[in-house]
Amino acid sequence: MIKYTIQAPxxxxxxxxxxxxxxxxxxxxxxxxxxxxxxxxxxxxxxDDTKVMLNVFNSNSNKFDIGAAGTSMRFLTAFLSRIAGVWxxxxxxxxxxxxxxxxxxxxxxxxxxIEYLEKEGFPPLKxxxxxxxxxxxxISGSVSSQYISALLMIAPGMKDGLNLTLTGDIVSxxxxxxxxxxxxxxxxxxxxxxxxxxxxxxxxxxxxYTVENDWSAASYWYEIASLISGSEIELSGLKKNSLxxxxxxxxxxxxxxxETQWKNDSIVIRNNNSxxxxxxxxxxxxxxxxxxxxxxxxxxxxxxxxSGLQTLRIKETDRIAALKNELKKLGYLLKDTDNxxxxxxxxxxxxxxxxxxTYEDHRMAMAFAPxxxxxxxxxxxxxxxxxxxxxxxxxxLKRVGFKVNEIAITHLKMRYPTEGI
Length: 421
Hints:
421 residues, alpha/beta, four-stranded mixed beta sheet, 12 helices, 20 strands, globular
C-alpha cells in the first residue's frame, strides 16, 4: 500500500494546465470508431478510462479487461453489441459489483445478444455483436446517464433508429445533452420532444474533433482557492459555453468565496474572502462535483445539504458512505438519506493523524488532499487512484508549493463502505 503525506502552502499564485475532459474524450472515441475514422480525436485525456478505450480499439483480442473504468464498461457494452464478433468484457472486483442490468436489458430489447458470465445483472459479459433493429424503448431517467448516452451513440446505426423515452425524474441531464451535442458535431440530428429523444438511421460523419479541458478537474482548484486567502490560479482550456455540466462549479463557488474571470482560452479564479453560513442545492445534474463541494463546505465550517445524489451510491464506491466515513476522521458528523448528504454543524474529536481512504475512487483523493490546508498531517491512502481522470494531479500540487511525500507501507488494509453496493 502507498500513502502520501500532504502539507499545504500558505499562498498560491499560479498557472495550471488542466487535463482534457474524460467524459468528452470517451464519447469522442466511440463516435470516432462508429464513423470508421482512422484519425484519433485531438487533445484526448491521458487518464485511465480513456487509455482503456484506446487499448480496446487498438487490440487484436476479443477479450477486454477495463479495470475500474465504469464509463468504458457502459459505452463499450453498447458499442460491442453492434460490432460483428463474439466479445468478452470484464473489470475489477468493484466493477463486477456495479450493476449493468438496466443497460443490458435495454440493448437486448433492441436486438442485442448479451450473456452474463458470472453474476446475473453484473459484469463480466459475453457479447455477440450484430446489427441491431432498434425501435421504441423506455428507460428510467433516474439511472446513470451513461446508460442513456451509450444507447444514443449507437442509435444512428440501428435499422429503425431509436425512440428513447425517459421515464420518471431525469438525472445528469447535462451529460445527455453533451452526448447529443457531440452527435450533432459528428453530423447526427435528433429530436427531443417532451421526454422522448428520437434519432433516425443516419451516417456518423468522420470529422476532426478536439476535446475540451476538464471542468471536473478544475473543481479541485476552486476548492484550493476557496481555502487559501489571497490565492489566484489561472486554469487552461476551459470554455464558458462548455459541453460539460460541471462548468457550473464556477457558479457554485461564488458562494464559497471564489470569483471567476473569463479569458479567451482560460479562466482566472481568485479568493475574495467572502463566506456564507449555509449552502443548499440540488446536484442532480452535477453529481461528480459533490465530493468537492461537501469537503469544501465542511473545511470552511459551512453547514450544508446537497440533494439529487442517488447515483453516487453506484459510482466507483458508495460515495455518500465514503464521505461520511472520511469526514468523521476530520471531526465532522454528516447525515444522509438515499439521495442527499448534509451537515448541521455537529462535530466529534478529530483523529490525530487522519489517513483518508480513497476506495479506488479518484475523486475521494482529489477532494480530500486540500484538507491539508486546514489540518496538519493529512495522509492520503492509495493516492494513485487519481490516474483515473487526472494523472498529473500530485505533480501539479507539488508545482504550486504543496509538499507531497510518499511512504510505502504493507500492513494497512483499505476499508470500503458497503451500504448501497
